Amino acid sequence: MSGAVAHETTDQPKIESSTADEKLKSDIEDYWKKFPGRVGIAVYTPFSEEVIGKRHTERFPQQSVSKMWVALAILEQEAAGKLSLDKRVRVDRDDVVVFSQPLKRYLGATGEFEMPVRELLAHAINASDNMANNVLLRLAGGPTSINQMLDRRKVQSIRFGPGEVLLQSAIAGLNWQPEYRNGNAFKDQRSRIPLDQRRAALEKYLASPLDGAAPGTIALALRRFSERGPNDPGAKLLKLMANTYTGRSRLRSGLAPRWSLAHKTGTGQVLGSTSTAINDVGVMKAPDGCRYQVAVMIAETRAGKETTNALMQNVAKAVVRHHDAVHPARPSAPVIAKSTKPSPNAT
After folding, report:
1. For 88-93, what is the mean pLDDT?
2. 339 within a domain of the structure (yes/no)
3. What is the CATH number of the domain that holds 270?
4. Total domains in the fold of the chain
5. How far is the C-alpha of 215 from the C-alpha of 277, rounded, in Å?
6. Is-above-0.85 flag for pTM?
7. Which of 124, 154, 224, 245 lies at a 20 to 30 A Cα distance from 73?
C-alpha cells in the first residue's frame, strides 16, 4: 500500500460547553464542600461570560496577591510616559519591611543600593519579595494611589491595605515601630503578645481584611488583562506573572503537559494550627491558546500544606478536563506511509 494515508481521528468527541460547565461546577462544589476551611473559588472559561465558583463574591485576604496592583500601577505610569522601567531607584534600610525579603542582602555594609524598576518588579512578582514591593509602592505614590487606580479601572470588591508593615502589625496585634526592621525584632515582639490578643487581632482581620478581595473580581480583572493588546499595562503584568516561581505545588502542579500559568501567590500569618490567606490566582493557558482565569483563596484552615495544595491542584485539573471536553485535541496530520508495507496505523 505505497503512499497509503492514515485516517484522521480524535481521541474524544466534543461536547457542548454548557454540559462541561455543569461538570466543572459540580467538581468545584465537591472540592469546596470537602475542604476543611473557608475558601473562595472563581473560574472564567473562554466559552462563557459566567463565573464558575463558590463564595466568589466575598472578600478574602489577599496578602501577596495584592502585589499585582502595585505592579499594575507602576506599569500604568510607564504607559503614560511618567516612568521608565530602566530608572534606577535607591533602596536603603528604611525600605526594610517584614517576612520574605531576599533583597535585604544587597544592603551590605553601606546600607543602600540601586536597582532598575524592571528588576524590582521581577523580584516583587516572581519572588514575592516584600522589600521590592515596598519600594515600588513608594514609587507608585502609596496605598491611596493604588486604591485610586483600582477605582479608575472600576475594579470593585478589592481593597488595597495600608502597606506591608502596618498590615502585618495589625494582624499580629502590634503597633508598628521602626526598630522592628532590625533582624528578627518583629517576630520576637510578636511572640510576646498574649495568645488571646493575637487571636482577637487575627479574627478581626479575617472578618474584614484590610487587603480583602473577591476571587470573582480578581478573576474578572485577569480576564480583562487577557483580552488586551501586548502594550497594555494589564497584558504586561500577565507577561511578568508568567515567570513567577513561588507556589510550585499550588495551581501549577495541576497543569497538564504544554499548559502554562501566569500567576501570583499569597500567604498569610500562622497562629498555632491555623494558617491564613493561602492563595493562588492566575491565567491558565491551554496548548491551543485558550485562557482560563482562576482564583483560589483560602482565608483560614487548620489543614496542612498537602491538603491546601491538593485543593488548588484539583481545581486546575478540573479546568483542564473542562477544556479537553469542550475543545478536544485537533486531529493529527495525515501520516504518509514511507514503505510498501501497510502502516500499522492505517485502516
Report:
1. 97
2. no
3. 3.40.710.10
4. 1
5. 12
6. yes
7. 245
